[in-house]
Amino acid sequence: MLLALWSTQHNLFAQLMLGPLDYNPGKWNQSAQRIIQGSMSQVFSYNPAGDNVYFQLDTLTLPLKDDFSTNRFMRHEPWFYAPPFDTVRTTVRVEPSPSQWPFQFTSSPSYTYVLSGGNQIDSFLNVPHKIILFNDSLNPFVEKDTLLVWSYFPLRLVYDTSTLSIDTIPQLADGLISSDTTDTIRIYLPNGDGSVWIENQTYINNTMGRNPPTVGVVTFDGTDQLGSPYNFSPTSYGRCDRLTSKPIHLQYPVSDSLYLSFWVQPQGNGYAPAAQDSLILEFKDPLQGKWYRMWGAAGDSVRPFSIVHIPITNPRFLKDGFQFRWVNYANQSGNQDHWNLDYVYLARFRTKADTIHEDVAFVSAQPHFLREYTAMPWTQVTMPDIEQKWINKISNCGSQTRAISYGFEVSDEDGNVFNAYPTDYNPSSLDTNAIGPYSSSGYSTYSRWSNPDFTYDFAMGGYFPLQDSATFRVKHFLTQLNNDFLLTNDTVEVVQPFHNYFAYDDGTAEVAAWLGVPGYMAMKFQNNFADTLYGISIYFSPVKENNLSRNIDLHVWRNLDEAPLYTEKVRIGVSPLDQNARRIYQNNGFTTYILEQPVPLTSGPFYIGWLQNQIFKVNVGFDRNNDASQHCFYRIGQSWESLDIPGTPMMRPMVANDFNLDQLSTPGVQAKAPLLVYPNPARDRITLVSEEAWKQARLIDATGRELFVYASSGDQHQTLALPAVAPGAYLLKIEMEKGDFSVQRLLIQP
Question: pTM for this structure?
């Protein structure tokens, strides 16, 4: 067949499913982040050079543990932290100060010549000046460079020793400095925020690891924090993702036996790194600011997670401010060459035999509670759509049999718990059982935990039929865990959305599927009730080929044997100013198209898809963890064929008449209350209308930089003056009183 997945040299983005990690918030940051070298290594840049926004890091203490079951990446949004303090930093300094400004200089030494002893000429080298540059975007308080220069003279004097004469030659200045300068910078203090990792080029997820020790891994590939290739050239190769720890207090003697251990797996559920690819570990000497390679592994096909132990014995590392990081070398043109990392542990008084952690943990939990889909429109959901048996994987990573208890709680958007195990089930008392070590017993086979019932009647409880979009949450938890190695992996929360779309996929693409010749792709969905199709979302994978300038024809069918109900030509790469299409700039970010003409749909089946008229690859995300292949079809000749590769192409129909592209602007929880911002486009002011109280609104540019903060006056209608900014697309992030957010896309005209 011509519909295929990328081979082992190709792969697609993978991010996390809807729970326990809704998304990686740090990945939405569109700004450069780099680690600081130098004496003030606690300060590093958030935005590109010139923005003057910096973060100060706290120094971690031992032990350091992270199994990536929770998000411990440092946040890089200024609004996440308390207001910054401002300080002045020197940008350029000249020592000694010149006799006058502006100071013109040359890199050629200049001399003073004097007559002595009659016709004898002596020469004296003039005092040089140092131009000290501090304008490094990494650390503004550390000297970036020092230039040795001399005051500029239009004519350069040359002494001829043979004739004892002085001649002149013209010369040009090498540069000019108006004066010593200073800048005001803003420093945010996220100390004690619980984060461990500075960068977010890697991503934590629940889908890429194959049988990981616990729920959640961090994955390295060839894409940046926004899910875009580092270099779209198919032959590109080099350093890709980094995962760097915060500074660590490590002023200990060698006798304290410090070890860093971690679990690693190539490929996982993605694609194998090639033989020339690698994952390496580096340690930093905090005094010299140098990184040293300590461990490395060449690319390989998938194998079970294995533990690596690295002793820390060199005195250059046993100092406060020590850091470690992993870096992968791979093809830079897409999400390829996967490595998965888990169970990072740095502590004193360890040995190489310290390989077993007495830890009972979730490995995975039921990611949704629908029978057929992972998400449904609130206008379509009924009780028969609810799955009444769930699947959980619980593991005992230790060496001893443990007695534990399991439970779950289901809550609505307001946090009201309306169904719980074991309270609402039989037996209703605490349900305790033994779980043996994974090495001998595998995952828990106790059916009340591994395959629990979910028999709640939403209709009888007054929730169905839903009157509006809604989100439910399920919290799975383990209890009675004395002396457990990690408690964070004992609780898993998953999210069940009922908004305006159908989905078979979980929002993560482990690989990419493509149709390499002209033809059709289609996916089947089922309406319980008549509805209207307003939009189509597709996750396009930028793997190897840059097809953003290509066009496809969207199609909607009632039956694949009949003519389509609707067709529309669209561009794969959409402009940020496009009023009818939107791409979410993050890993697994869908592109959504609002149809020029809504398509009425009766109850029953319908199909969405596309036609490509040219020979190129439309790389669509392919979810390997959910198999809806029986609903996927393609046609490259006269007849339709069903997909015979297990998995799900990431295509979603958008229904419900309240569909709004602005709801797709950023990841996160959207405010449910109606919000209106007008006029849009705007020039000098806007009016914000909200039925729900809001606290503040932040105007943000395309790089994620905060430009202005508005405080609420308490009025439902509030007029906001816009600052003097360049015309273009901006975001207005509105924080509601209840703590959720609404993000509105705002176009500002000249």
Answer: 0.76
